[in-house]
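DATA SHEET
Item: assembly model
Revision: 1
Owner: S.N.
Input lines:
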Amino acid sequence: MDNAVAKTVIDIAPDQLPSHIGVIMDGNGRWAQARGKHRSDGHRAGVEALRRLVTCAVEFEIKYLTVFSFSSENWRRPQDEINTILGLMKKFVASDIGTFAKNNVRIRILGSRKGLNSSVLKMIQEAEERTTQCTGLQLNIAFNYGARAEILDATIDIAERVARGELKTQDIDEDVMSRALYTGGLPDPDIIFRTSGEQRLSNFLLWQSAYSEFVFSQEFWPDFSRSSFLDLLHTFATRKRRFGNIE
Ligand code: IPE
Ligand code: IPE
Ligand code: MG
């Protein structure tokens, strides 16, 4: 992430900007393959693209950015690729945490903590603690994240509160459910953006995306640029959201 964040004027009214953007950063492997490189080179280039995205989100004063960095299904990949991705993630958080804090970026890691090794858990804890006072962009990193597991975990949590007598069944509503998810306290994403040409959610924010705008681009994640971000903002500004109502 750049230290100096430049201000740019764009022709989009502030009320047409999204406050929460969700990004499925897909296509690292194919980007590398297309260049005759190893998949790990694609993941490294993907981290650079993530830095560009965070810089853009800070510049345009986006309030919440949620990036899908590793899904609960990505454990199915070969162990050496998993190690590369985990290593890059730890390096990214360690090397950029100072810049995040300086740019007032608050980090939150979304996902299941079950079964994570102690070095990963330590990295998560440090990242969250060091930026806990930050009030600018909130960067949520979905790691070991799967939306079905999230909904299941929330359901278990609610059932246990009912069993303990802390909550009545008739008081369970959408708000109780939303707050019990890993994303509890966050507004729903206005946009879900996915690169690489795939048009699916792959178990990302299933509950939260009920009224999100979906934007898909053909470029592979490592090619994501500031101009891709501006395209995304312009596309969102043209969407008419009705939430079931009429205009
Ligand atoms: C996204 O790129 C990164 C992760 C899922 C961790 P991929 O690794 O899925 O790249 P492709 O889709 O195989 O090209
Ligand atoms: C989704 O991408 C997960 C991340 C971007 C972290 P995948 O590459 O894992 O999704 P599928 O397997 O193509 O659906
Ligand atoms: Mg993929």
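QC remark: Residues 15-236 form a domain with the Undecaprenyl pyrophosphate synthetase fold (CATH 3.40.1180.10).
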